[in-house]
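Protocol step 6 of 9: fold each sequence in the batch and record its structure tokens directly after the sequence line. For illustration, a two-sequence batch is reproduced in full.

Sequence one:
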Amino acid sequence: MIVEWDPERPKKRATELIRASILNGDIIAYPTDTYYGLGCDLFNIKAIKKLYYIRGLDEKRPLSIIFNDLKDISNYAVLTDLAFHILKRSLPGAYTFILKAKRIVPRLMMSSTKEVGVRMPDHPVPGGITMLVERPIINTSAKPPEGDVLSDPRDIERRFRGNVPLVIDGGVLMGEPSTVISLVDDEITIVRQGKGSTKDLPR
């Protein structure tokens, strides 16, 4: 099912569908500031494993987590003074920051070195979902095991039919990946250059 949803002017039926889908363990698709994402409840391990399966990903590959604000991020990841300064200047934005994870993060969502990728997209829908369900959500691009990232909500609904019961319509979204930056141990490492600019990072 494809629904329209504006967190600033939410319609009751769509809002209830989104909330119920996440809390019932479903995977949903939604627009971000980069690509369409596929996501689920951070604490539903069964849903996370299904997300890995439909994306054709190895479970050893960590997925990112979407948060609504810096305070929320600090509950799940270690924010040093440097990391806080960089995130405050950069977010919301098209970045994935790699940080040391706190113990609250499910082990499946950590790397082998207990790190986690955090996202705070510059788009109202992902953050709106986290506020709606009162917890962070998992995020990965809406890409089938074969082929490219899907940009049209109708294609996402068709390709993931039976596995993604709800798609939030954000129009056709021709995006590019987030910039991935590791801030572990206050070492700034650009893992992937994407949409987010790195010119203002401390050198």
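Sequence two, same batch, same settings:
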Amino acid sequence: MPTYLEGSLVAGDARFAIVVSRFNELITEPLLNGALDTLKRHGADLDQVTVAWCPGAYELPLVAKRLAATGQYDAVICLGAVIRGATYHFELVAGGAGSGITSAALDTGVPIIFGVITTDTIEQALERAGTKAGNKGSDAALAAIETVNLLRQIDAPSAG
């Protein structure tokens, strides 16, 4: 029989940092509220959560990596919104944020969750920030909780 490892959705004593892009705050503030609500509903102590605001999505990876490197957090959640415009800027920002967040997580070994929504229109972004399409900040918080618990299982000494 195979051994299955699966993270639970109980935050317990896990410590979280959330890095939020100030750009598109109309979108990112509801994402933050969704993440905080989900952490609370799953047992996190919000007094142990740090929220760091940064200028935009492009700056998320550096701030997240710096927070992760402190050793104070079990996971870092990155929240942002990149909305396509008429120029190539969208691809640069979205791609830089995505690859930077991935690199930061791999470099630090701390889960750094990609909660950056990338949409063609502001209407699509609003839908993903708590209306029709749920709240992607909440989804990112769930991913953080589950990943923390999965990594704890992997790191735990085997019984036997």
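Proceed to step 7 once all outputs are recorded. Observation for sequence two: Strands lie at 16-21, 50-54, 75-83, 112-119.
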